[in-house]
Amino acid sequence: MKKFSIVRHWKIFFTLSIVFLLIGYGSMIFRGFNMGIDFTGGSIMDLSFQKPVTVSQVRQVLDKHNLGNAVIQLESSDTNVTSARGVIIRTAVIPDTERKDVMNDMTRSLGQYQVRRVENVGATIGGELVQQAVIAILLSWVLMILYITIRFQFKFAVAAIIALMVDVSVTLSWFSLTGMEIDSSFVAALLTVVGYSINGTIVIFDRIRENLKVHRRSETVTDMIDHSIWSTMTRTCYTTITSLFAVIAIFLFGGATIHNFSFAMLVGFCSGAYTSILLAGPLWLFLQGKHAGD
How many angstroms separate the CA atoms of 275 and 266, rounded? Predict the structure, then answer.
């Protein structure tokens, strides 16, 4: 049975990608991002109470100190939990004296607790994190272009980087659309996604390069690319599914502190599989100056 031609149906996959990216870019422009304390600056208090407390109880205490708009996060593997012992409180930057007053009030109202972490993060540090994250991603792309150009050819490198740009954009789009907080762990997740996605693309490109050496004139380049993609499909699916098992487990049971990190990995891994299988091959074909069917 003849297999479905991915390259000949490139318009479907390109259209879906462009539509979603336009929605994502629109959200990034008009909605922006929910930047975490690591980027915007602020104070963070990580507390462990002897008895479970609720978000409303903690907020009542903070209201007394004009901190009612603080972000309160309960630490629990159960996403539907209403109370927990572990609580993370993020506020605007507050002086040490005011923070001590807040913590003393917590003791009087909610009972004894253990302080696991208390710190101020300045906005200047956040700016440096953004700059370093951009530099890290761009540097990884440059090194990948050099490696793929040496190992394969420059047009393979360009196609791979375009696919990576889509993966990064999709991950950013989801965070903008959902309003999930972006913190320093998001940068680590994004770099992991870049490494994972390029791995799947390289596997397919390596098979295309091998098939180019034995390419028959009776076979079109389009058919050769399709054959290369399908011959690596089992490996790509197995790798993606087994990786997703781990990421989904972390997302569901890893707790609130790494929830956003695991969500970024989940979105990025799915996007990486999509671009590697459905976009990378056609992109390389068009960069060769050919059309689907040639």
Answer: 14
Question: Residue 163, exposed/middle/buried by CB under 10 A (0-12, 13-18, 19+)?
Answer: buried
pLDDT at 294: 60
Q: Is 223 in contact with 6 (CB distance < 8 Å)?
A: no
Structure tokens at 131: 């700059």
DSSP helix/strand/coil, 117: strand
Whether the CB-CB separation of 265 and 189 falls below 8 Å is answered with yes
Averages of pLDDT over runs of 10 residues in the chain (294 residues) are: 80 93 94 79 84 86 80 70 80 81 88 84 66 83 88 89 93 91 83 87 90 75 89 89 90 77 92 92 87 64
> DSSP readout, 192-238?
HHHHHHHHHHHHHHHHHHHHHHT--TTS-HHHHHHHHHHHTHHHHHH
Picking from 155, 161, 147, the residue whose alpha carbon sits closest to that of residue 286 is 155
Backbone phi and psi for residue 87, each to the nearest 5 degrees, phi listed first: -135, 135
- Contact (CB, 8 A) for 261 and 188: yes
**pLDDT for residue 21:** 94
Question: What is the pTM assigned to this prediction?
Answer: 0.76
